Amino acid sequence: MGPSINDRGTVAFLAGLDSGDAGYFTSDGTTTTLIADSSGQFNFQRIPTLDNLFGEPVINNRGTVAFRADLDNGERGIFSSTKGNIQTIADSSSDLKTFGITPDINSKGTIVFSAGTVPVPGTITIDGQTIPIAELFQNAGIFTNRGGKINTIADTNDGFALFGSSPAINDRGTVAFIGIKPDGEVEVLTGKGDRLTEVADSLGAFSSFRGVDINDRGTVAYLADFDAGGSGLFVGGQEIIATGDQLLGSTVSELNFLNKGLNQDSVAFWAKLADGRSGVFRADQAKSAKSPFSLDRLYNEIGQYTTTTSDGDPTDIYFPQLSKSDCKSIEFPIALLLQGALVDKADYSNYAKQVASYGFVVVVPNNERTLTNPATGQTITGLFPEEAQVNDVLKDMKAEDIDPSSPIFKIVDTTKLGLLGHSFGGAVGIGATQEEIRIPGLGAEGYTIPTELKAGIFYGTSFGDPTTGAFVPINNKVPLGLIRGDLDSVSPPNRSQSTYDQILNPPKALITVKGANHYGITNEDNPVREPSRPTLDQAAATSAIAKSSGLFLRANLLNDRRAFDAIFNASTHSDPNISIISQAQPML
């Protein structure tokens, strides 16, 4: 384990002093602050020995430091420090007597650690150093502490005899750790305190695991030792680098990886090369030779079911189908699709499935209502979306997420909502991102923007006064994207451009799909309602629109840097059918 850094640039680290003492410190590059040393209740030694092996501290974005330490009175435990106030998380005055060398802490202040009831006997040799097994594995379990309450993530009742000393936790509270069964099988697992999910095991090509981490997407990284010798670093089940691979003109001979080495886009690791060089390296998903990032869909298997909303709307829901190893450890934001006028939800199935494959639960209701023409007084009843669906669907998805009988039980991130829309539905969606202008038929009095709404992107639409035809300023509260087909004659491209120009608050994007008409987003073209014939194949048009939609939502709901670059740095977008105008920041 090396130093830990938070998003504010503050580093927590272990250091030896000229006096022969050692301690834990933090530094922002200007001020170094002592967290703990031997002058107080703790017992540190300059060089860790077999009797007192200690790891590095970890720090979260609030500046809270978590660490394991031994005490002058012979006790030991896990501790935290916030603004100089040291608190005991767990110590050996309880039933827990030994503690793993490195805890972890997330941004909410939840600390995860491993602990044992008695020291595990024996030693092992790693890279020429003899290490007590008791420092690497504990026999009681994996635990978390938040607000003074100890929660069990895994213990011997789950069928494990030993637990790795350096578990990891993400901001969603999912813990990743290494467990060893009584028969010697080693597993990498995740859990939140209810069920455990296996990520990898030693029954196949792996013999053991060293180091594990988990990011906020639920992706797990681990270093695996091979049965045939050597080791490899894996992220999300894909091999990133292994001993024997080429690196900087030499061959990798050793690898090491511990928690705090994985973020949303990159993984850091230590490697030793055959020519004697060693160092810390970073593998970016976009550049890794063994795991190249693709701007194509992330999930191949998409589930679908039909339900009825609390308002009585028949609704199709599309979602990524997870493997056993990922189930219940990954959550997906909601994407509500507001249909075009008089277009059935089933006509969007291809588009919805493809957007879902970018990591979203896509909700497609059939919303029937009656509209009145303000000029003639004539009424029409049919499928017309409305702003009220935004809050209604959000409420329904929260209910689905906690319903054990639901196919999307516990896989919905109900804190993040994105909007999709087509034609009339796109105009409704644009209206739902602001509260100043209520256009008859589109907006309704009393609508409020939910805090969960993070972005919206819409196809074949515009936003203006239907009586005067004037385009109105859009004081959007979330990022907005528009997609247009350059052969759209129902909502011509110049209307999308005029709407884009009225979007006041970036990030915003205007994406053109060459050769697509108004119905490029639906399963089939509609020659009755759209006189302009497309030159781009229907499947290719739908794919381009879905890709643009998925990337825009990922960029703005999930802070996905690669998706952001694809939208706001058009040179990275490889699809020849797509061109982009965008603005990421306000003009100075």
Description:
- A nine-stranded mixed sheet has the order 30-31-33-32-36-37-38-39-40, with helices on both faces. Strands 14, 17, 18, 19, 20 and 21 form a six-stranded antiparallel sheet that branches.
- It is elongated, with a radius of gyration of 27 Å.
- It is 12% helix and 37% strand.
- It is built from seven helices and 40 strands.
- Helix 2 (349-356) runs parallel beside helix 6 (538-557) and helix 6 (538-557) packs across helix 7 (561-568).
- The chain is mainly beta.
- Residues 46-53 and 286-294 have low confidence and may be disordered.
- The chain folds into three domains: 4-203, Neuraminidase (6 Propeller), CATH 2.120.10; 206-292, no CATH class; 302-583, Rossmann fold.
Short description:
By secondary structure, the chain is mainly β. The strands form 9 sheets. The chain has a 9-stranded mixed β-sheet, sandwiched between helices. Strands 14, 17, 18, 19, 20 and 21 form a 6-stranded antiparallel β-sheet that branches. Strands 9, 10, 11, 15 and 16 form a 5-stranded antiparallel β-sheet that branches. Helix 2 (349-356) packs parallel to helix 6 (538-557) and helix 6 (538-557) crosses helix 7.
